[in-house]
Amino acid sequence: MTVTLVTGANKGIGYETARQLLELGHAVYIGARDVERGEKAAAELGARFVQLDVTDDASVNSALATIDSAEGRLDVLVNNAGILGDGPIDGPTALHVFNTNTVGLLRVTEAALPLLRKSANPTVVTVSSSAGSFWAVTNPERPEFNLPLPLYSASKAAATMLTVQYAKSQPGIKFNAVEPGTTATDLTAAFGIGRAPEESARVVVRLATLDANGPTGTFQDEHGEVPW
Question: Which of 73, 81, 102, 114 is a Cys-bridge partner for 118, taking CB atoms 3.0 to 4.6 Å apart?
């Protein structure tokens, strides 16, 4: 059975990704900062829950230690947790956004690497965004062109770059970043846009279920590789 951890999985794309992977037979661990919401989501799905706050080293290390104790390995890591970071543009807000969207990715990945190395087909998926693509935000034909989210965009650009660099430094593990598509979640509620999370989750699931010969070091959406 494939052992999978999805961060920020108590709602939105993370929740739907967990549901679809469970349907494919994965043993899914839902990582969530809020214990009550995380346990509720896990119970609804028939998944397992680990308290995981991507901004807290102790929380991350404890979550991975729990998985190590129970499973002895990790086959798939989906770095999904993230925040929009709209509102004031100042130092504290920027630190919070980057700590969640970028440093949080690094924090979880570093803690997971020893377990991923024990897998026969280790795979890491970063839920990133074309809002962090220079190509997209400078293209008037793209929706990202008019998206007023500088901190989110910058943190997602860094998240994609981290993913590519991990692919280079960890050749035995597949690392890919994904643009899941504009999705109607808590993050986009203020904009009133987006499709159902189950549609976007399919893009994440595709990259989370690559075989041993699958690509690594890419940034993809549902149509394939995306310039960035």
Answer: 73
CATH number, domain with residue 116 = 3.40.50.720
Q: Which of 59, 129, 133, 153 is catalytic?
A: 129
Q: Which of 128, 156, 174, 200 is labelled catalytic?
A: 156
40 is catalytic: no
Its pTM stands at 0.93
Strands 3-7 and 76-79: parallel
Q: Catalytic: 156?
A: yes
Per-residue pLDDT of the chain (228 residues; tens, 9 = 90+): 999 999 999 999 999 999 999 999 999 999 999 999 999 999 999 999 999 999 999 999 999 999 999 999 999 999 999 999 888 899 999 999 999 999 999 999 999 999 999 999 999 999 999 999 999 999 999 888 988 899 999 999 999 999 999 999 999 999 999 999 875 445 544 545 555 778 889 999 999 999 999 999 999 998 999 988
Look at residue 35 and tell me if it is in a domain.
no
Q: Which domain holds residue 212?
A: 71-225
Contact 157, 85 (CB under 8 A): no
